[in-house]
UniProtKB/TrEMBL annotation:
One example of a Gene Ontology biological process annotation: peptide transport
TM regions (residue ranges): none
Annotated localization: Cell membrane
Keywords, comma-separated and alphabetical: ATP-binding, Cell membrane, Membrane, Nucleotide-binding, Transport
Pfam families the UniProt entry points to: ABC_tran, oligo_HPY
Statement: the UniProt record of this protein carries the keyword Nucleotide-binding: yes
Gene3D superfamilies tied to this protein: P-loop containing nucleotide triphosphate hydrolases (3.40.50.300)
Matches recorded under CDD domains: ABC_NikE_OppD_transporters
Domain annotation ABC transporter: ranges: 26-274
Protein name: Dipeptide/oligopeptide/nickel ABC transporter ATP-binding protein
Membrane topology, from the record: Peripheral membrane protein
Length: 358
């Protein structure tokens, strides 16, 4: 809650969409990095939840705090670098403040992550197979032979050809797409109940992208895991996500079902993201233009709405967008936005200016 909102009558701010029964619940998460230039507010009051069997898509431009959020859940920030407050409840246990040893035990067994860059998650000097075997044996008291068989099965599952021989290859012997698959195999080695996939398809060609997303979907169906897919590209989560959270400058700006986000988005930033999605059937000139400008520094976030320097509608309500941070609120049926535009304005703009150009 900002000082401004406090001053506006002190009405209780509705919490963001957190289902109190969900497997993962993130509540009022703040991740700040003190640096020589000032405090980087990478995540600033973020709340969301994901239940078993469900997929949440987190979407936002580069630097919006997506990876910092996932690394916080996994307990993977370098010790002492990040100041983390709020709650991250995994099946009811709060991970914030938990000892690194206990979080390490949960990682792999109950939660796992597919990283943006597979090479960063794999050790270059150990074979792919030995890394999967290692991950599996940390949590399962099995012989090396059993773990090796499990690794080969997993590589087969994720579509690595000749897994029996490729299991002994080193990461550099795999192509980008195969490394991504191998990392998925590693992440899935202990059937995690929560899987976070951070840009699982960036840098892969379109066919491999589709295969990787299909794979995540199949594995989720099999294990009934809670899945978070992080991407800067709304297209990636269009078919996969049940719900979508759009992030800007370390905060949620819109949250709803995927169908709502695509059919009746209500936040100007989401309109911009939709306008940036590639379309082959229309000339760019007759379409909505991609969002101009760049996201703000997270050390000096603009006063009022952080999106105001880039928003075409910032002047709609006098100087409100420049002075008061918009509350993240329910605008109907659980659809949340953080924007000062009133319902009438939003509908009018969507119907007359945005939808015809998408
Ligand atoms: N250890 C750190 N110290 C200081 N600032 C950091 C640290 N880690 C991340 N940040 C900053 O936090 C912000 C959010 O970074 P994050 O990696 O979460 O972005 P992202 O949404 O994942 O972007 P991308 O789409 O490029 O992966 C960035 O401004 C980044 O520079
Ligand atoms: S609050 Fe104002 S600046 Fe922010 S998105 Fe809404 S209209 Fe644009
Ligand atoms: Mg990232």
């Amino acid at each position: 809650m900002t000082q401004h909102e406090d001053n506006l009558g002190g009405a209780a701010i509705r919490p963001a969409p957190v289902d109190s029964g969900a497997f993962l619940q993130v509540r009022e998460l703040r991740v700040h990095f003190p640096t020589d230039d000032g405090v980087v507010r990478s995540v600033d009051d973020l709340s969301f939840s994901v239940d078993r069997g469900k997929t949440l898509g987190i979407v936002g431009e580069s630097g919006s705090g997506k990876s910092v959020t996932s690394l916080s859940i996994m307990g993977l920030h370098k010790r002492g670098t990040a100041k983390i407050t709020g709650e991250i409840l995994l099946d009811g246990q709060n991970l914030v403040g938990m000892s690194p040893e206990r979080v390490r035990l949960l990682r792999g067994k109950r939660m796992a992550m597919i990283f943006q860059d597979p090479l960063s998650a794999m050790h270059p000097f150990y074979s792919v197979g030995s890394q999967i075997i290692e991950a599996y044996r940390i949590h399962n008291k099995v012989t090396k032979a059993v773990a090796r068989k499990h690794a080969i099965d997993l590589l087969d599952r994720v579509g690595i050809p000749n897994p029996k021989s490729r299991v002994d290859d080193y990461p550099h012997q795999f192509s980008g797409g195969m490394r991504q698959r191998a990392m998925i195999a590693m992440a899935l080695s202990c059937d995690p109940e929560l899987l976070i996939a951070d840009e699982p398809t960036t840098a892969l060609d379109v066919t491999v992208q589709a295969q990787i997303l299909d794979l995540i979907r199949d594995l989720q169906a099999e294990f009934n895991s809670a899945v978070v897919i992080i991407t800067h590209d709304l297209g990636v989560v269009a078919e996969l996500a049940d719900d979508i959270m759009v992030m800007y400058a370390g905060r949620a700006v819109e949250y709803s079902t995927a169908a709502d986000i695509f059919n009746s988005p209500q936040h100007p930033y989401t309109w911009g993201l939709l306008g940036s999605m590639p379309r082959l059937d229309r000339e760019r000139t007759e379409r909505l233009q991609p969002i101009k400008g760049t996201p703000p520094s997270l050390i000096n976030v603009p006063e009022g709405c952080p999106f105001n320097p880039r928003c075409a509608y910032a002047g709609t309500n006098g100087d409100l967008s420049f002075t008061v941070r918009p509350e993240f609120r329910d605008v109907g049926g659980g659809h949340h936005i953080a924007c000062h535009l009133g319902a009438e304005d939003r509908l009018r703009i969507w119907d007359t200016e945005i939808r015809p150009k998408l």
